Amino acid sequence: MVWRIDRLGRSLIDVLNTVKSLQQAGISVHSVSNEIDPSTKTGRMMLGMLATLAE
C-alpha cells in the first residue's frame, strides 16, 4: 500500500517500473488516496495518467 501512486518514483518510468517489478514478485499494489488498482485495465490507465501528472 502506498499513500499516493506518485510516491513510488520520481518519473513516469520509475513508477511504472516499480509497479511492474512488484507485480512480477507477486506483490499487489494499492494506492490509498486515489484507490488505483494496477491489476485492472482502468487502473493501469489511471496509473499512467497520474504518474505523468506527478512528473
UniProtKB/TrEMBL annotation:
<keyword id="KW-0238">DNA-binding</keyword>
<dbReference type="InterPro" id="IPR050639">
    <property type="entry name" value="SSR_resolvase"/>
</dbReference>
<feature type="domain" description="Resolvase/invertase-type recombinase catalytic">
    <location>
        <begin position="1"/>
        <end position="55"/>
    </location>
</feature>
<dbReference type="InterPro" id="IPR036162">
    <property type="entry name" value="Resolvase-like_N_sf"/>
</dbReference>
<dbReference type="GO" id="GO:0003677">
    <property type="term" value="F:DNA binding"/>
</dbReference>
<protein>
    <recommendedName>
        <fullName>Resolvase/invertase-type recombinase catalytic domain-containing protein</fullName>
    </recommendedName>
</protein>
<keyword id="KW-0233">DNA recombination</keyword>
<dbReference type="InterPro" id="IPR006119">
    <property type="entry name" value="Resolv_N"/>
</dbReference>
<dbReference type="GO" id="GO:0000150">
    <property type="term" value="F:DNA strand exchange activity"/>
</dbReference>
<dbReference type="Pfam" id="PF00239">
    <property type="entry name" value="Resolvase"/>
</dbReference>
